[in-house]
Fold this sequence. Notes:
Layout: E1 3-7, H1 24-38, E2 44-48, H2 57-67, E3 74-77, H3 84-90, E4 104-107, E5 112-115, H4 136-147, E6 154-157, H5 168-171, H6 178-188, E7 191-196, E8 203-207, E9 210-214, E10 241-246, E11 251-256
Parallel strand pairs: 1-2, 2-3, 5-6, 6-7, 7-9
Antiparallel strand pairs: 1-10, 4-5, 8-9, 10-11
Helix pairs in contact: 1-2, 4-6
Amino acid sequence: MTKLIVFTDLHMVPEGTKIIGLDPYQRLLAGIEHVNRHHADANRVIFTGDLTHRADTMSYERLRDLLSLLVPPAAITIGNHDYRERFLETFAHVAPDEDGFVQQVIDFDDCRVVLLDTLFAPPYDYPRSHAGYLCERRLAWLDRMLADANGLPVLLFMHHPPHKTGFTGMDAIRLGNEDAFYDLVLKHGNVRHIFAGHVHRTIGGSHRGIPFSIFKSPVHQQPMPFDTPNASLSVDEPAAYGIVVVTGEGLQVHHEDYEIARRDSEIA
């Protein structure tokens, strides 16, 4: 059974910098140590974008050094807070696809994992480029990856949710061409689950018949009121990562609030 750990929205910052009083480095370090302690057998640790907060080289270097502490191997894609070229300069071991996008396919015995690059840039024209987009080249690449999956169920990992989640501000900067994305996915019929980040909330459900899961950040979270128009509002709630386990009958999705998780249980 393939086991995948999922982190999203790391928002790494330079040393001495915090976000709403929180230290992204220390929070992610605690998550990495938790994974190494309890899930060292994971097949991959997948990072689905917003790796840094301001896409500066110093933050990418801090993150690269921090991820080197992971026991399981990592797989990485990027989000709207990232800068594709700067990321690839710092993470020289990450190979982009033939068109230069931070995408990859990983085949296991029981599933095909596909990481998508949904960054709507260059140009880096904020706030416009905070929304996600899959251009014709990326859609064509995804078409090929789904077509030659050789009967394996496909798990898609991306930063931007490809549909509305109910949060007004975040829905305004979701994947911009969701219809083209879903038409392609449904054409092949082999995508079993879609995983995303971006919203900084734990959300699950289905859209157009395909189950999806969205994970919280290891740093700051989206406040719960659905009608908040400002996508930058954040609250201090427990850090989390996801655990995905492929089974013979399907898959399981778990959410680990690792900062408050306890193992010293008692019989109730």
